[in-house]
Amino acid sequence: MKPLLPLEEAQQRLIAMAQPLPSESVPIADALGRYLTKNLITKRSQPATDMSAMDGYAIRFDDRAGPWQVVGECKAGSPPCPPIETGQAARIFTGALLPDGADTVVMQENVERDDIMIKLISDPSPVKGRHVRHQGGDFKTGEIALKAGTYLNAAALGHAVIAGLGSLSVGRCPKVAILSTGDELVLPGIETKPHQIPASNDVMVSAMLSQLPAQTRSISRIKDDLDSLCQALESAKDCDVIVTIGGASVGDHDLVAPAFKQLGGETDFWKIAMKPGKPLMAGKLGNSLVLALPGNPGSAFVTATLFLLPLIRYLAGAANYLPAMQSAITNTVLPATTQRAEFLRATVDGSGITPFNSQDSAKLSVLAAANALLYRPAHSPEQQKGAEVSYISI
Ligand code: AMP
Ligand code: MG
């Protein structure tokens, strides 16, 4: 049997064909889900100066025994209140600046107040610097807050704001055309004749891309004839990525490769050592990267997970673009694999991971019931129940 291109090599070759897209500056509020293209350097220290972490009283630690006379009130958002001397305390609230002279905060629950005087009512006695957030304790001006290539989630956006930024440099969103092919395909929700099926992959692949920074255009249900395919590919040449679904095998009606070649497309690889997903093809048409996914829904989903989504993340500026692998204990014996890496539709929970008995890639019922792709590398020996295996959450 002719050796097929190993999975990792195919992934590397696809990425090698691509280049991250240029950066653009966007307001932080619009940067969710994008990838940072430059290291984010803090423009301020946090906290800018020592402040209270509690509601209570600011004192001098050297003067920790008390009692104290309350001489001022410090609250968040106000300039510092007047300095305190020995024998004095300032009423203070969370987020307020510590007055000069104070270095420690005593919680309000630990003192008793009588008019302008307070005294300690409980042990332990104050600890130096307690309940104080120190200047620069979170970060200091000029530090790297987030590295280039970071995925901007909600917490990262919060970090960028507190670091003093108002806009961020992120990778441009790739423009992606999704072309589905097949005479049998009809629009969703339309009553089908026995020779027809609803075009489910179009919605599924668009949904997968909607979780990433990508502008998608759907060119749905192209007829299985060379002219229609050539026209559709031609009309998508302004896109960074053209992803075709179906028609990628070698049957008489699998016309993606012939159409691609007729237009002068250059194939980088076709047919990889992977199950499902063997007929995957990648190449270039003009300035567009073309990825041809097989039509069976299970194959389309697995190849999109392992190739299309990583490619989009990479183009959009991601440092970590491959799917995250996790590990679990297998609940079943897993047969040895051949030269093809396998991705078994499976369920994972606290008990471990269980592949479905049927791995028919045409079955959407199996794919939809799965929450994991169990990864079996090429040339793996049989695995016993209880062995640790890798999987991708889906
Ligand atoms: P193909 O790769 O074109 O030979 O298609 C393989 C199988 O996937 C066939 O049974 C097709 O009907 C089915 N298929 C292809 N494209 C789609 C699509 N967009 N939605 C659902 N099923 C599809
Ligand atoms: Mg077809």
What is the mean pLDDT? 96
Radius of gyration: 30 Å
* Number of extended strands: 27
Structural class: alpha/beta
User: Which oligomerization state do the chains in this entry correspond to?
Assistant: single chain
Shape: elongated
- The separation of the N and C termini measures 32 Å
Description:
The protein is elongated and about 95 Å long. It has 394 residues and is α/β, with parallel strands linked by helices. The relative contact order is 0.14. 19% of the residues lie in helices and 31% in strands.
Tags for this model:
six-stranded mixed β-sheet, 394 residues, 7 helices, binds magnesium ion, 19% helix, 31% strand, seven-stranded mixed β-sheet, binds adenosine monophosphate
Could you write a compact summary of the structure shown?
The protein is of the alpha/beta class and 394 residues long. 19% of the residues lie in helices and 31% in strands. The protein is built from seven helices and 27 strands.
What is the topological layout?
Layout: E1 5-6, H1 7-17, E2 23-27, E3 40-41, E4 51-52, E5 56-59, E6 68-74, E7 88-92, E8 104-107, E9 111-114, E10 117-120, E11 132-133, E12 144-146, H2 154-162, E13 167-171, E14 175-181, E15 185-186, E16 197-198, H3 200-210, E17 215-222, H4 226-235, E18 241-245, H5 256-262, E19 266-270, E20 272-275, E21 281-285, E22 288-293, H6 297-315, E23 326-329, E24 341-349, E25 352-355, H7 364-369, E26 372-376, E27 388-393
Parallel strand pairs: 1-20, 6-7, 14-17, 14-18, 15-16, 18-22, 20-24
Antiparallel strand pairs: 2-13, 3-12, 4-11, 5-7, 5-8, 6-10, 9-10, 19-21, 21-22, 23-27, 24-25, 24-26, 26-27
Helix pairs in contact: 3-6, 4-5
